[in-house]
Amino acid sequence: MAATAPAMAPVQKPRFKPLGLRNSSTWLRLWIGGLVVALGVGAFSALIVLTNGLGVTNLTDELPWGLWITVDLSSIALGAGAFTLSAAVYLFGFKRYEAIARAAVFIGLLGYSSAMLALFIDIGRFDRFYHPLIYWNVHSVLWEITMCVVLYSTVLMIELVPIIIESTPLRRYGLLRSLSHFLHRLMPAVATLGMGLSLLHQSSLGATYGILTARPVWYSPSAPVLFILSAIAAGAAITLLVTLIASRLLQRDMVPEDILTGVAKFVGFACLAYLYLKMWSWAATNYYSRVPEQQLGAEVLAEFTPYNFTFWFGEVVFGALVPAIFLLWGRLRANRNVAMLACLMIIAGLVINRWNMTLSGFVIPLDWSPGVRDVFPVNHYEPALVEWGVSIGIVAYSWLAFTLGLRYLNIYPHAKSAESSGAASGAD
After folding, report:
1. Which residue among 2, 149, 250, 272 has its CA within the 20 to 30 Å range from the CA of 201?
2. 73: Cβ–Cβ under 8 A, 6 or more apart, which residues?
3. pLDDT value of residue 9
């Protein structure tokens, strides 16, 4: 290689060395079989809800949002890697990140479709799911979120069409190849539109809570930005995580090492930015100011729920601070297992945050006050079995779709076998 291309810089040996599994085909069949079973459990649970209504769940008028809304918010946040990496490639000129941007787009579409499945079950009147598209309520934050999710999902499908054409027998048809090339030329404009839509609804999800003065525990002007920052970190983290897992299972370098390192550093800095604003938001509402309703709400949460532990340990230390250290410390980041652990911790921290945000405001009744504590008890919630079933089915759908996409779609265009990588390094 050095003789034929002397001007080329030496190819470094990948630090993220793929590690294969024996009898991989058997493991793959077991994995897909398990996901199909879980998907069947979800479909059966969804059928129970659709035929009997929300009365079979543990949701109530006092506590109407629970596990499904947590799944919805988490899925949308985990899909944020699509707009982040697409913007890096098509808007900011980091073309080398196209090696992982396709996977981010695919994961983004799976995240948004998972969120829509959760909402379809959660709204109760599933037959009216299309009403926001016809009956506009421009004063509603939830309506704005609905429109942005629908439009951004359309953007993600447009970005995925060229990948599907390129990866399937559809590429044999000249008209479809021309469509693929045309859409590829439109990607900068599509990425710009997608980034705007994603930023709008990610922030609006936070605003759904942050503007509710009637529930002081939620009320926070920083909530929209916190939702954006946490989604940026977690969305890129899950893209990095599945890429590392795929590299290990398939014994292939799915993307070059410098791309993995760049994404890992980006996720680490995003975690630090999220932590910085989160600590100032907490200090502004709990330390420097003493709003009676917020203070009372914090006391109730500390007394009746594990909120303080899940906030400080689950969200701050476990879900952001420690992973940031792992991903920004070069020696730790180079260890593949540590990198995957850091990504898992960030994803877990995001889910804990969305659970805390959803439940914390509903635990305290709107009629709660120090003088009537015995009259209006604290609301309690545990997901019903059918709620767990639907959630498991939604997660199984996303993982099964990604597994099949990894098998049949060219979502990692620069993937190469570990043997070829090692041979190239040896030749150089």
Report:
1. 272
2. 115, 205, 354, 357, 358
3. 39
CA dist 210 and 112 (Å) reads 22
DSSP letters of 26-40?
HHHHHHHHHHHHHHH
Mean pLDDT value across the chain:
86
Q: What is the distance of C-alpha 387 from the center of its chain?
A: 20
User: Distance (Å, rounded) from C-alpha 291 to C-alpha 17?
Assistant: 53
Which pLDDT does position 58 carry in this prediction? 95
pLDDT, tens digit (0-9, with 9 covering 90-100), for 165-175: 988 888 888 89
For the residues 343-370, what does the mean pLDDT come to? 87
Bigger pLDDT: 94 or 422? 94
> Which pTM was predicted?
0.88
Q: What is the mean pLDDT of residues 209-225?
A: 87
- Axis crossing angle, helix 98-122 with helix 67-78, rounded to the nearest 10: 160
Instruction: State both tokens at 109.
Output: 């579409």
| 31 CB-near residues (< 8 Å, 6+ apart) | 403
Q: Which of 391, 400, 398 is CA-nearest to residue 69?
A: 391
Amino acid letter, 304: F
Domain boundaries, the chain: 29-420
> 351: which 2 tokens?
């889910």
Give the CATH class of 29-420: mainly alpha
Stronger pLDDT, 216 or 153, i.e. the higher one:
153
Q: Above 70 in pLDDT, residue 126?
A: yes
Residue 425 near residue 13, CB atoms below 8 Å: yes
How far apart CA 345 and CA 10 sit, in angstroms, is: 35
Q: What tokens does 21 get?
A: 């599994």
Token pair for 354? 């969305």
Enumerate the β-bridge partners of residue 416: 253
Which H/E stretch holds residue 416?
A: strand 416-417
| 98-122 and 385-408 helices, crossing angle to 10° | 150
The DSSP call for residue 291 is -
Quote the radius of gyration of the chain (alpha carbons, Å): 23
The count of other CB atoms within 10 Å of the CB of residue 422 is 15
% pLDDT > 90, the chain: 54
What 3 state SS string does 193-233 have? HHHHHHHHHHHHHHHHHHCCCCCCCCCCCCHHHHHHHHHHH
CA atoms within 13 A on the CB side of 191: 23
Note the Cα 276 to chain centre separation in Å: 21
pLDDT value, residue 369: 58
